[in-house]
Amino acid sequence: MLDEKTIKIVQSTAPVLKEHSAEIGKRFYSLLFSKVPDLYNLFNQTNQKKGIQQEALAYAVYAAGEHITNLEKLTPVIRRITEKHRAIGVVADHYPVVGETLLEAVKDVLGEAATDEILEAWGKAYGYIADAFINIENELYEKTKNAPGGWEGFRSFTIDKKEKETNSVTSYYLKPTDGGTIASYEPGQYLTLWAEIPGEKYKHIRHYSLSDAPGKDYYRISVKKEKGHGEVPNGIVSNYLSSELNVGDKLEFSAPAGDFILDKSNAPLVLISGGIGVTPLMSMLNTLVENGTNRQVTFIHATANSEEHAFREHVKQLSTTHNNIKSFVAYDHPTEADRSAQNYNKEGFIDLEFLKKVVSAKDESEFYFCGSIPFMEAINRALNEWNVPKNHIHFEAFNPLAILGES
Predict the structure, then answer these.
(1) CATH number of the domain at 155-257, out of 3.40.228.10, 2.40.30.10, 2.40.30.110, 3.40.50.970?
(2) What pLDDT, on the 0 to 100 scale, is given for residue 142?
(3) Which of 137, 308, 366, 396 is catalytic?
(4) pLDDT at residue 59 above 80?
(5) Is 277 annotated as a binding residue?
(6) Rounded CA gap, 403 and 79, in Å?
(7) Can 252 be counted among the known catalytic residues?
(8) 95: annotated active-site residue
(9) Residue 228 pLDDT class (50, 70, 90 cuts)
(10) pLDDT in tens, 19-37
């Protein structure tokens, strides 16, 4: 345990780290990658270029410092981060250099304000926090390795089928190259890809939600080919998958991970997705159908129009053949054909007024949503304004700041 003096110093200085989180994070990664360049392989380099990862790191340290005497308060955040760490291969040996570099970054940014006493206190606090993460991650590694069909590290999978869902979304059916069994998963979880792309210096890490129900002899992920705009380049990995890979090609994945999972209750469900955020919710919906659930399900999807609407016919068919499933669609840029066919329920974005129209039994319902950060911020605001209980709100987030609950 930490001594009282250390706790007081950490809690009193935590707001300063928050105020300078972006600068500290930027300096930290600059120092870290100069010391251990191979760690580039463990981070999403697009998030690095955008500065998202840098800000998230110091903010996470600030939050842990603020709650240093009650880390249980951060359980949801810690669970998310440790799931990500297990998925990408973070191990105990990584923590010492990270701690050492973090203190260097704090000293560089804060200058004389970062006294030896403050740095010593934060060093102790970091060790305490790191131990908590390491213990949880070790349990996750053991659980994953020992699960039926489970494995350590990254395993080779062969693309068994490649199926176009829309002009920009493709589903990949993946079977283990070694012909062995594969681990089951909870609907809503993801696979983590470690991609070696020709011309790229380092490997690229990406998380892709599983988009079908578990229990098959394959995994399915559905990936949107990301087009660049302005200063934002094309998605490196999504374009590589779409344009360069075909049936028979091989990819490496770690075992399924993630804490965005379907609860086991019989409460009414509201599944809300934006764009490619539909993928984990498709896994949930397909699982419910295959299990013969009687749960009332309201499936709400927002996208540009029918040309960008993945799984449209599948969801429509399920809602037609199952009385307990209702489907609603919002298009923000419907085509003339969409307008003629009237194949959507709202033109524009999902808002609270629309939710109130299509969702019944609000107080009893469990709400799950996934999409872009702006989409999730809007849905979260609407649900909070509607006084939906916090413990009934669940979301998936691959963006580091959203992982911390900043969405």
Answers:
(1) 2.40.30.10
(2) 96
(3) 137
(4) no
(5) yes
(6) 10
(7) no
(8) yes
(9) low
(10) 888 888 889 888 998 999 8
